[in-house]
Amino acid sequence: MFFIKLFTIFFLSFFWQSLKSSSQITDFTYNGFHPPLTNIAIQGITTVTPKGLLKLTNTTMQSTGHAFYTKPIRFKDSPNGTVSSFSTTFVFAIHPQNPLVGTHGMAFVIAPSSSLPFATFGQYLGLFNVTNNGNVRNHVFAVEFDTIMNMVLNDTNNNHVGIDINSLNSVESSPAGYWDEKDQFNNLTLISQKRMQVWINYDGRTHRIDVTMAPFSENKPRKPLVSIVRDLSSVLLEYMFVGFSSSTGNIVSEHFVLGWSFRVNGEAQPLALSKLPRLPVWDLNPTRAYSFYKNWVPLISVLLISLLFIIFLVRFILRRRRKFAEELEDWETEFGKNRLRFKDLYYATKGFKEKNLLGSGGFGRVYKGFMPKTKKDIAVKRVSNESRQGLKEFVAEIVSIGQMSHRNLVPLVGYCRRRDELLLVYDYMPNGSLDKYLYNNPEVTLNWKQRFKVINGVASGLFYLHEEWEQVVIHRDVKASNVLLDAELNGRLGDFGLSQLCDHGSDPQTTHIVGTWGYLAPDHIRTGRATTGTDVFAFGVLLLEVACGRRPIEIDNESGERVVLVDRVLRFWMEGNILDSKDPNLGSEYDQREVEMVLKLGLLCSHPDPQARPTIRQVLHYLRGDAMLPDLSPLDLRGNGMMLGNHHGSSESAMFTSGSSVAYSLLSSGR
Ligand SMILES: Nc1ncnc2c1ncn2[C@@H]1O[C@H](COP(=O)(O)OP(=O)(O)OP(=O)(O)O)[C@@H](O)[C@H]1O
Ligand SMILES: *[C@@H]1O[C@H](CO)[C@@H](O)[C@H](O)[C@H]1NC(C)=O
Ligand SMILES: *[C@@H]1O[C@H](CO)[C@@H](O)[C@H](O)[C@H]1NC(C)=O
Ligand SMILES: *[C@@H]1O[C@H](CO)[C@@H](O)[C@H](O)[C@H]1NC(C)=O
Ligand SMILES: *[C@@H]1O[C@H](CO)[C@@H](O)[C@H](O)[C@H]1NC(C)=O
Ligand SMILES: *[C@@H]1O[C@H](CO)[C@@H](O)[C@H](O)[C@H]1NC(C)=O
Ligand SMILES: [Mg+2]
Fold first, then answer.
1. CA 149, CA 160: separation in Å to the nearest integer?
2. Are 645 and 564 in contact (CB under 8 A)?
């Protein structure tokens, strides 16, 4: 019985032993981890991709990932025996999320169990934790591929390979790389996303541990990268588990194993590199330039574009501001309601377009415009005023006259002041200025009734300025082009006071006279002073113009001589037929007495002697027929011979410009 029992025990133990040895694992090879995957256990954030990649970590932060061959490997023949030779090779790749920083690396590991439950993430690579790091009872052997330089763990750089025994403080380490045929060292960058192959060999007899690596598909270099002699007998137990460990920190990398082969007591079977699964498609050659391009160029372009946009915007606003800039001073506040915005005028005249130009005179250009607010047509006169002298008085006068609203004055809508510019805004006069109906064979002429009405209108406008307004206002520039015709062909005086702007010469040696040649009274030229009398003189010239349809001074086509209108009318009168000087365009429908009266009144008004001229009040009486013109002879009107344009005195030195305002200086020494 005893023997049977003994035999049974012996037999069973033998059977168990043989069973055990027959199932003993000595090697395995994975050319990819294609499903159905057998004998590999994964833990933590490790996954196996459908394409057969063993993905130790994904992009979950602060985690560990493990993959172990599930069956124990017998490293010793007996618990107290020596460790047998073993060899392993695998292909891996690391894809860091940030191309310049990898965390934290990965390791090939031989551990007493197929899980490392206490191991932590980050720098501990899923192998150890802060308390058991370095503990001899760990019985852990690992080869780390570390992408972080950790001072505490005595790392040499952020791209190294190290042999770890029970501790992450490597017993031996080296920057990642390989020695080529010519014994030259070549760096390898672990986080380059490129595939690399690793060989780890342990010689059970010599206790030499060799770690070798090379770029994918290159032969195993003869010279190992890291090599030490260390008896692992005290480290490894009889049965151990082999696998990989990896971890992530706050920055993450994906760690991949593509293929793996292992053998105890012999050389691991080479991997069939062509059968290994493909890595996901990343940027194939992520050079620094590329990552720069990828990360910074879009950002920089966006910044540049916004910067350009802002510059453009600021310039636009500044330009707009400058374009519409105005000047407003304290004294102007009382004219506030007459003040107009330049911007409104700009848009009203469609940006002072050439098409809107009505004409230009001695002071500037006049543009037609339309004010949407009041739905009124306007005429905008741009006067350049470099000398700011008298501007205040002028604006005050302009505005007060503008408030007069006499039916024979062109209403002033308002004004605007800019850097060197004054803008005066008037009602638009649809029938334009009187001069257009008088000279140079005009398309439209006025009949006598219309002309007489205009003359009367201008006279009462001038009378209003001289006598009816609270102070005496001198127009200074009475002439045909400043008489505008409204819709009912009423004559309205415009441009009052403008010449005054330039008439404030402070130098006693030079008196600046502004007016229009041909309308300037001799006494005005002599004294440089504008008076109501000089206005009457100009009005007289205007009367002659209207009646004769001629300019005050014309050049005779044949002789080339100057023909002064006053002289011409006088000559006709002296020849006994003053009516012959009238405008032939008048036709036959006219009142002879009226025409004759207007011609004689014109001569009387433009008398060289200011004392001989009537006042505008008297002129009105004559025109209205309230008083009879005194009986005059042409010789009475020759006066002292100081007739304008009569080749006398200072008129010679004056510039001759027909019709337009001139400013000229008279040296007092010339008198
Ligand atoms: N309110 C207005 N409505 C319609 N047309 C106007 C108005 N004001 C001026 N104009 C037109 O613009 C032209 C130019 O006027 P501007 O006053 O600048 O010149 P001018 O009268 O010939 O000379 P001056 O500078 O001596 O007044 C005028 O001839 C007239 O045809
Ligand atoms: C990483 O893998 C783990 C385990 O499969 C999973 O729970 C987690 O959601 C994954 N994380 C990401 C970011 O894919
Ligand atoms: C192994 O070694 C331990 C102590 O080192 C000893 O106690 C044990 O008996 C040994 N076992 C064998 C089978 O030799
Ligand atoms: C570290 O691991 C050991 C086991 O190896 C465990 O006893 C210990 O509690 C762990 N320490 C921490 C801080 O996790
Ligand atoms: C790490 O390096 C320091 C100084 O170089 C040394 O004192 C320490 O012993 C090293 N630690 C390990 C575990 O090698
Ligand atoms: C290899 O890397 C080391 C340290 O990172 C560096 O000093 C060396 O210049 C590199 N060599 C080459 C050939 O790139
Ligand atoms: Mg004018």
1. 9
2. yes
Ligand 4 contact via 227 beta carbon (within 6 Å): no
Give CA–CA dist 197/203, Å, rounded. 20
pLDDT tens digits for range 607-620? 989 999 999 999 99
Atom of ligand 5 nearest to the CA of 169: 13
Q: How far apart are the first and last CA of the chain?
A: 168
Q: How far is the CA of 187 from the centre of ligand 6 (A)?
A: 6
Closest by Cα among 248, 255, 254 to 122: 248
Which DSSP string do the residues of 66-77 spell out, in sequence order?
EEEESS-EE-BS
Distances (CA, A) of 387 to 383, 424, 508: 11, 17, 17
Could you count the other beta carbons within 10 Å of the beta carbon of residue 552?
A: 26
CA distance 458 to 435: 14
Phi/psi of residue 256, nearest 5 degrees: -120, 140
Q: Are 548 and 564 in contact (CB under 8 A)?
A: no
Cβ(62) – ligand 2 distance below 6 Å? no
> Is 393 in a helix, a strand, or coil?
helix
Give the residue, by CA position, lying nearest to ligand 1 atom 16. 361
Beta-strand relationship, 483-485 and 510-516:
unpaired
For residue 108, what pLDDT is reported?
97
**Alpha carbon distance 260, 280 (integer Å):** 19
pLDDT for 651 equals: 35
- Give the DSSP H/E element, type plus range, for residue 201: strand 196-202
Catalytic residue check, 507: no
Question: Mapped to the 3 state alphabet, what secondary structure does 279-309 carry?
Answer: CCCCCCCCCHHHHHHHHHHHHHHHHHHHHHH
Query: Is ligand 4 within 6 A of the CB of residue 166?
Result: no
Q: Residue 443 pLDDT > 90, yes or no?
A: no
Global pTM exceeds 0.85: no
- Cβ-proximal residues to 13 (8 Å cutoff; 6+ apart), any chain: none
Count of C-beta atoms within a 10 Å radius of residue 541: 29
Measure 58 CA to ligand 2 centroid, in angstroms: 6
3-state SS class at 272: coil
Q: Is 623 a pocket residue for ligand 1 (Cβ < 6 Å)?
A: no
Residue 568 CB neighbours (<10 A):
15
